[in-house]
Amino acid sequence: MTRPALALKLTRRELNTAVAKATQDLWDSIDLDNIDASWPAILDALIGIIAEAHGQGVEIAEDEYRTARLAAGILGDPPFAPATFRVDDLREALTINGPIALKVALRRRQSRERAIAVAMSRLVGTSTRLAADGARRTTLNMVAADGRSLGWARIPRPGACAFCMMLSTRGGAYKSRESALQTKDGLSYHAHCGCYPEPVFDDNWQPPKHVREAEKLYAETPTNGDAIKSFRAAYEAAQNT
Ligand SMILES: [Zn+2]
């Protein structure tokens, strides 16, 4: 049986942008004088959007895995191990980073505009992270279930923060399959993080240029006791030149 192809296949980045935009639009209808009464409808709509994006992310990751696997000359179907969507985890995270963040900001006597913007940034960071979980966890699940890949590599977006760049350079080009689900790196994605795990099938796999540059910088940077601190300083200096 062949699966029907999506009429419009979004990339990770487009999916992320769509979720961010939808979150902003929904947050616009929060009523500052009636936060608790106006939140449930926003929350329900948000969960619907995240569920849909999560499902699309699962498909993106599955397609990517199949394509990379086929390109490595491995025929046949990989086991499909999609990320599961757990709605219970969402409600609390979204409420903390939406209405509760808003109330905290207002209590700190921030202006109404500032308070709404602060909470919106947190809410967008949370909704996009929860949506991106679909693709991220599917890749890790498939690497673990398949047994034909060498592992996965963390790919940050160009210009990512020093923390993510450093994680992407750590431990060589890929992690072993055995550690794919054990290492925390695969699941530590902060809000507004653009990193994703990419399956690796080939010993000669090379990370993208911006990661190779970060690896070079990391290798050249003397560590004065604190590797992360030293790398961050060197990375930020390099970005500003
Ligand atoms: Zn990141």
- What is the topology, as strand order, of the major beta sheet? 1-2
Number of domains: 2
Helix fraction bin: 55-70%
Low confidence ranges: 1-7
Overall spatial form: flat
Mean pLDDT: 88
- Which ligands appear in the coordinates? zinc ion
C-alpha termini separation: 53 Å
Q: Structural class of the secondary structure composition?
A: mainly alpha
Question: Nutshell version of this structure?
Answer:
By secondary structure, the chain is mainly alpha-helical. The protein folds into two domains: 137 residues, no CATH class; 92 residues, no CATH class.
Protein topology:
Layout lengths: L11 H16 L7 H37 L15 H21 L4 H35 L4 E5 L6 H8 L26 E5 L8 H12 L6 H13 L2
Helix pairs in contact: 1-2, 1-4, 2-3, 2-4, 3-4, 5-6
The structure holds zinc ion.
Zinc ion binds next to loops.
Word description of this protein:
This protein has 241 residues and is mainly alpha-helical. It folds into two domains: 12-148, no CATH class; 150-241, no CATH class. Helices cover 59% and strands 4% of the residues. It contains seven helices and two strands. The protein has helices at 12-27, 35-71, 87-107, 112-146, 162-169, 209-220, 227-239, and strands at residues 151-155, 196-200. The protein has a two-stranded antiparallel ribbon. The radius of gyration is 20 Å and the shape is flat. Bound molecules: zinc ion (ZN). The site of zinc ion has 6 residues, from loops. Zinc ion (ZN) is lined by residues 156, 160, 164, 193-195.
